[in-house]
Amino acid sequence: MPAQSDRNDRRPAIRRTVLVLTLIAVALYGLFFIRVMLLT
Amino acid sequence: MAHHGDHADTHADHDDHDHKPSGFFDRWFCGTNHKDIGTLYLLFSLLMFFIGGSMALVIRAELFQPGLQLVEPDFFNQMTTMHALVMIFGAVMPAFVGLANWMIPMMIGAPDMALPRMNNWSFWIMPFAFTLLLSTLFMDGGGPAGGWTLYPPLSIQGGNNVAFVIFAVHMMGISSIMGAINIIATILNMRAPGLDLLKMPVFVWTWLITAFLLIAVMPVLAGSVTMLLTDKYFGTSFFNAAGGGDPVMFQHIFWFFGHPEVYIMILPAFGVASEIIPTFARKPLFGYQAMVYATASIAFLSFIVWAHHMFTVGMPLGGQIFFMYATMLIAIPTGVKVFNWVATMWRGSMTFETPMLFAIAFVVLFTIGGFSGLMLAIVPADFQYHDTYFVVAHFHYVLVTGAIFSIMAAVYYWLPKWTGRMYNETLGKVHFWLSTITVNMLFFPQHFLGLAGMPRRIPDYNVAFADFNMISSIGGFAFGLSQLLFAWLIIDTCFLKRGAKATSGVWEGAKGLEWTLPSPAPYHSFSTPPKIDDSVLAHGDVSH
User: Fold this and answer.
1) Would you state the pLDDT for residue B466?
2) Average pLDDT over residues A7-31
3) Which residues of B touch A25 (CB under 8 A)?
4) Predicted ipTM?
5) Is B11 among the residues known to form the active site?
6) In what helix (H) or strand (E) does residue B61 lie, and over which residues does it extend?
7) Nearest-angstrom CA–CA distance, B170 and B222
8) What pTM did the predictor assign?
9) What Rg, from alpha-carbon coordinates, does chain A have?
10) A3 interfaces chain B, CB cutoff of 8 Å
11) B304 has a chain A CB within 8 A of its CB
């Protein structure tokens, strides 16, 4: 099943994509708190 | 298009071995198949479209004539607030996510989404979020009534619905962020070998960019509503001037989310139009790369225009000028897109099936919404238009004849691929003409009302506005009733299956990987990555 192994090879790349995007989302959520606290 | 059929047979042979989950619960509640989850999103969106639509009818019934007739003013305000929340987060966004779920894996030659179990979770958060939101209407004090923008201090002066609404918004945000991560992970990692980024269908491109917008702004919305929650229940003063906070700060944060949100709802619509118009003009899309770069430009500009929603709040002259010109700049990439759609149709062998009719109406009517947006961008003019029915007319042209018309176009376009049956073309055309005539009757007079000074979000008005309101309400009810025909057509095609059997190519001019699959698309498709043959691709650097 060469196609299957092709798909499996993509798992690390998918994990990396998810990790980076999740970090961006969490950081943006936190950053806006910090920004508002600094400005108020 | 005969070669499509040949491909389809090959894939059908492969895919017949696949099995669906046997039980109803296993398939629809625990399933991870992108097509099933896409169907769930689309059905959920249709339900919300009718719930949000009935709220709009309450609004239009009350505004049919001056004076207070049917509902209390506070309930009227609950209707305007809930109508917006339900339509934006419950109808338009899930419809596009449903289309993305169904079509993106098939368009890029992937077997499913990159994260199928998270996909199930993304969807199943939504019914709980909206049950929570809608349940507030039955609470003491009713639902939220301060407008969908949730501006403090008004929004947190309500009863305990505030906590429910904020929790519901958080859940919708989590669902959207997970959906967006899934879409980006799928597009970046799951494309069939040889399907370069600049060969992807424009619908896939617009969704990739939209997903980045979602990840960038949904946390901002979540942050702002969390602060509202702590202001109300935990004694903080983020937006409370008495405690050293700043209510205008909320507006800035909200619109930093809110303006890109508008593009989250319209960029996938651009993608849909870019798929349909070439098919029925039987010509490749004019300026494929320009379309992609224009989409990216619009997405970038959407982050630097938020304060045009706040000109009347007060800001330095430099700020007004910056936000005015930045807003006007958006007309350039949008103009590129409209030009390219028209150029695609130019001298094409056009036919006017229902999806094409909706797509052409989308181009024309969305452009009207775009032009009124340019008028609103002019600071001194906005001082006059702000908070009037002109704004209501503007964003309904963008969201109803823009986003919702494109969703309807997409449903008619892909329904034969989803169900294996053609819809009733005559009824489809009747639905189109009824919708197009009545939607203009509903929203066009609202421009005149706004220019004459009628404020938005009021249950009663000066008798001078009576005639146009009556026309608008008649248009509203006719538009609402016309949508029952849409629901009937979907039932007729999906469940009664009375239409003719659809071929794999469905439309004579359709190109792209999804059309190489049989109709209905098999439960599991592209388990083996397809070989990319440029002649089946619709877009990109391919010779036509």
Assistant:
1) 97
2) 88
3) 177, 181, 215, 218-219
4) 0.81
5) no
6) helix B34-62
7) 6
8) 0.93
9) 18
10) yes
11) no
